[in-house]
Amino acid sequence: MGRKWNNIKEKKATKDKNTSRIYAKFGKEIYVAAKQGEPDPESNRALKVVLERAKTYMVPKAIIDRAIEKAKGGAEENYDELRYEGFGPNGSMIIVEALTNNVNRTAAEVRSAFNKNGGNMGVNGSVAYMFDPTAVFGVEGITADEVLELLMEADIEACDIFEEGDSVIIYAEPDQFHAAQEAFKSIGVTEFTVAELTMLAQNDIELSQDARVEFEQLIEALDELEDVQQVFHNVDLDD
């Protein structure tokens, strides 16, 4: 299961060239989470998850505060949370999550991105069954054995734990995100290299060079859409 971490690393590695777009996406996501519940992360778990993710992408505090203040101010912007499923080159599988104030526009743009880059849209359920909702953490300054012992003491069952460079990567059930986070904080670990609620493919696939180029163009086209928040796939992009 460990090599699936490469797809998360690949997504985070694109941050430097897409900083403004990533910050804009987080601003929207923070606003939606704050507006749907209390604008306080201590009493709004959805907001707390988004803020933890934003921290690992180094989203500026000004952007976070602006989004929360906008929600507090009773702004009337309303967004629908949507999921699209589809296929890329050579049967690769893709899940697209979006926040939109215009469902028809978003559907048309996502469909166009698939069609123009060797893919096609699928129906609901055509892809998602091959992915598992997963909480992913990356921590430093602690060994995999120490992580395992910590989680066992907190009665948290990890799906996988492995070392990657200077980090220990942990996969857990999504409903244990907060419990795992609190367990780490209890031993002084407050900074994470990654803290995500993601969709991990049950099996990664490899593509030929030509198919991979086309696939990467498709992923980039989807990522560039204003309404798209996250894109998950089952292609191993590790070189």
TrEMBL record:
GO terms for cellular component: cytosol. It is found in: Cytoplasm. SUPFAM superfamilies: YebC-like. GO terms for biological process: regulation of DNA-templated transcription. Pfam families: TACO1_YebC_N, Transcrip_reg. Signal peptide: none annotated. Gene3D superfamilies: 1.10.10.200, 3.30.70.980. Transmembrane segments: none annotated. Keywords: Cytoplasm, DNA-binding, Transcription, Transcription regulation. GO terms for molecular function: DNA binding. Residues 79-235 form the TACO1/YebC-like second and third domain. Residues 3-74 form the TACO1/YebC-like N-terminal domain. InterPro entries: Integrase-like_N, TACO1_YebC-like_2nd/3rd_dom, TACO1_YebC_N, Transcrip_reg_TACO1-like, Transcrip_reg_TACO1-like_dom3, YebC-like. The keyword Membrane does not apply. Its main location: cytoplasm. Belongs to the TACO1 family. HAMAP family: Transcrip_reg_TACO1. This is Probable transcriptional regulatory protein BEP19_08680. It comes from Ammoniphilus oxalaticus.
